[in-house]
Amino acid sequence: MSAVLTPPSPPKKTNRIGLDLVGYKGLKTTLCAGCGHNAISERIVEAFFEMGVAPWDVIKVSGIGCSSKSPAYFLSMSHGFNAVHGRMPSVATGAVLANRNLRALGVSGDGDTASIGIGQFVHLMRRNLPIIYIIENNGCYGLTKGQFSATADLGSKLKTGVVNDLPPIDTCALAVELGATFVARSFSGDKKQLGALLRAAISHRGTVMLDVISPCVTFNDHEGSTKSYSYMRDHEEPLHDIDFVPYFQDIEVEIDPGATRDVILHDGSHLRLKKLAEDYNPSNKMEALRVLDEAARSGEVVTGLLYLDTSREDFIQLLNLAEEPLAHLPESKTRPPESALLEIMEELR
Amino acid sequence: MSSVETLPAQQSAAPPPPELVNDFSIQVATVNGSGSQTANIVLLRALFQMGIPVSAKNLFPSNIAGLPTWYTIRANKRGFIGRKKEIGVLVAMNPETAVEDVRNLESGAAVVYDAPLELNKLRSDLHFYPAPFDKLVTPVCPDAKLRRLVRNMIYDGILVHLLGIDLEEVRKALFKQFKKKVKAAELNWKAVEAGVEYARQSLPKIDPFRVERMNANGNKIIIEGNAAAALGCVFAGVTVVAWYPITPSSSLCETVIEYARRYRIDPETGKATFAIVQAEDELASIGMALGAGWAGARSMTSTAGPGISLMSEFVGLGYYSEIPTVIFDVQRVGPSTGLPTRTSQGDILSTAFLSHGDTKHPLLFPDSPEECFTMAGDAFDLAEQFQTPIFVMLDLDLGMNYWMAEPFTYPRKPLKRGKLLGAEELERMGGFARYKDVDGDGVGYRTLPGTPHPRAAYFTRGSGHNDQAGYSERPDDYVRNMDRLTRKFETTRSMLPRPVIDQNPEARVGLISVGTTHWALVESRDQLLQEFGIPTSYMRLRAFPFNQELTDFIRKHDRVYVVEQNRDAQLLDLMRLDVDAALHSRLRSVRYYGGLPIDARTVTDEIMQQEEL
Fold first, then answer.
1. Fewer Cβ atoms within 10 A, N terminus or C terminus of chain A?
2. Residue A100 has pLDDT above 80, yes or no
């Protein structure tokens, strides 16, 4: 991890709110050894710890599948909800509307999102609900022993030799098009990039859609797979080198505006995107779609922050919700007075 | 005018029929989308304002414009407001159906019709009143585009004259209906006057039907069941509403929106104390309702049969992971798409056990707008007390038709939010086990997400779990949990709205119904007694699971007719599961499932047929 990411002032063992890293951990994982999902869980633990988010303010919501099991393996002091297959977005939406102070962390998989859950996924993206939506994308159904999912690339091979003959759904392109305000792709093995993106996601207010290629070591990590560790090592094309500077930390390093884009997030944190091959501008939807399309054609996997819009209002603002969580409003606020009923009765006479 | 000459010749020879005052039905046959609804509601309101008990049944197609629709208004001085099969006065405005509409009438009925249809040639045993609607509307409404809409008000005017409706009440009803659209009201009023004037000059009264001012309606209101349920939700403090449009439930959530915007914006902050989302489908609406209930909101959704089917999986999750929410099912005719604009009680069984595995859910059955209002409140309390989805079972007849109702009583009891643990309790207790039956009633304690305490969190899942909400596939954990859920369900029996019983010690015959079937039964009981000398007892169930009172009621009678609006005797089947098998032979079934609201005569005929076997 780079020097920029380590908070300098508080003692190493506890974070801004006095909790240690253990407070952000979960149960021991029951996923396969080497599963990409476990690495993502670790990054989640670190990100929430380092951002000093109170775990009891977080809800972990998921659908069904290997990825959806993983919320048990981090943030055990957060309420978790393992919902039905493909329908986590609606549960998360209801919970966030009930209590706008909750920080929703949705964990889904490529089957849970791109097949059975595509309907709820696209509508979640449209609403810009404040949520971090992570797809742990391995291109296959792990829990039912390795069938293709809808994100499997054309020509990708199963262990049994079966070749995928349908084009993939690109969840990032969909999310960009539909209105998500923070869209990124990463790789479970890219510790630094994923860590920075997760911290930035915590700093964003709106829908964060983070597609993380996360190899399935048991069913989709072989020669011919495009979601394997070795394929990702050879084909990952980062758009930029990402550093994250949290709002509670002084910025120490001056940036060279010619070489680095500085992006300010909702909570005042900074994302620093160091140029690589080209000067990628993440505020342009068409650019995002272009790089995704070009990568898909060449068999590369672009990673990094694809799209960011900090200007659009989120679903809570759109609905003009009371500041106090709806779930906690006292009866005096939620039951209109008797005069209201009398007035209505008079109108109906 | 030649109308008098076209009347059947024998009319003058026949003795004048006895007058029928405040006891007949008016049916208006029109084309949907022609603006007849306004004319019909004005008519209904005028009669209501005259103090006459009235009811309205709108029989409409699953279509927006151009198909036949029939609106039936019943006036009944004795207060019977169920559907009546026989039509006294037909207003035949639809050329497509006019011939059949006239053929279906009982002898002696009156027919107001569009003169060019020449319906008087069809039968000689009816009283015909032709009216040249197009000719009459032209001078009233210079704007040709509006004529089609205004034209219908003319029949209101004609009926005013023929039936003796108070013109001033019509005017009041009309201006109430148009609210602030005074210009439109004035235009329509001119059409009413034109109808009155035409009838006065050209249509001498030859039929027996007449209305007379009464004083039966007191302080009553007129409202649809869906609107009443919506008000119940708003006054029960609903905070999260997720819905998907479907006939006949859409107007329920739409009315929640209307009243929430008026009465649930915090005057101090201008912010909404509610969230309403039109979801992408019923899967999402129930998902949002459950997510919100889990996080502590009073949440709800409303739907109809197809939506209930779609919600099945999520409802099982709500049952098993124990999340409060309220689901309104405004039942329509199934299976599948069925008859979307017709009424039914066909979702009783499938909803009681909705979802796979061993599941069962409390159902509430309102019969009237008053109960739609009170049971909405009950449902939210029950959902939170029992931490489970509660269904409120309306039907299209109740939900979408106008009903007279006593003004709703303001709910004064505090909201019951159920067993909730906050940070202080957790600190004192040192933690909790989410699914442990601490109190012996099967209901555990829950914490809400966001409770600021390290021990507040638990994991909610639809997979097997133990007392501590940990994942478990152990047989003993599974059985203990399922048995506790049974205990919880048993506890609800004594907490749900109790049946309404009218016990007649003389009666050997008992009748049982739910929901809107009630209105046919009160009248059928009268027919059974008056026409056949059969006294009956009556039990109106108001909730599932049933309680001991059902068994006691059956025991007290030799024969018990269970009357309901579905093909498969679903309510009866549900009773059989609950009631001692020795009593099953006393239970008999009366069913009507044609899609129209059940009527008393059908019930009486069927009971008499079975009685005489």
1. N
2. yes
pLDDT of residue A256: 86
Return the beta strands (E) in chain A as ranges. 58-62, 79-82, 103-109, 131-137, 140-141, 147-148, 182-187, 207-213, 236-238, 240-245, 260-264, 270-275, 301-308
Q: Do A325 and B296 touch (CB under 8 A)?
A: yes
Please check whether residue A317 touches B, CB under 8 A: no
- Pick the residue from chain B with its C-alpha nearest to A102: B450
CB contact under 8 A, A97 and B292: yes
Q: What pLDDT, on a 0 to 100 scale, did the predictor assign at position A141?
A: 94
* Interchain CB contact of B351 with A (< 8 Å): no
pLDDT tens digit string along B126-146? 999 999 999 999 999 999 999
Kindly state whether A123 is in contact with chain B, defined as any CB-CB distance less than 8 angstroms.
Answer: yes
**Weakest mean pLDDT among A327-336, B11-20, B459-468:** B11-20
In angstroms, what CA-CA distances link B423 with A17, A85, B431?
Answer: 18, 32, 10
- This complex has an ipTM of 0.95
Query: Token pair of B11, please?
Result: 């009319």
Judge: A97–B277 Cβ closer than 8 Å, yes or no: yes
Nearest CA-CA partner of B158 in B186, B181, B192? B192
Find the CB nearest A82 among B266, B286, B462.
B462
Closest approach of A139 to chain B, Cα-based (Å) = 24
Chain B: nearest CA to A134, how far in angstroms? 18
pLDDT for A8 beyond 60: no
Is the four-CA dihedral B111, B114, B119, B124 of positive or negative sign? positive
Residue B605 pLDDT > 90, yes or no? yes
C-alpha count within 13 angstroms, C-beta hemisphere, residue B483: 10
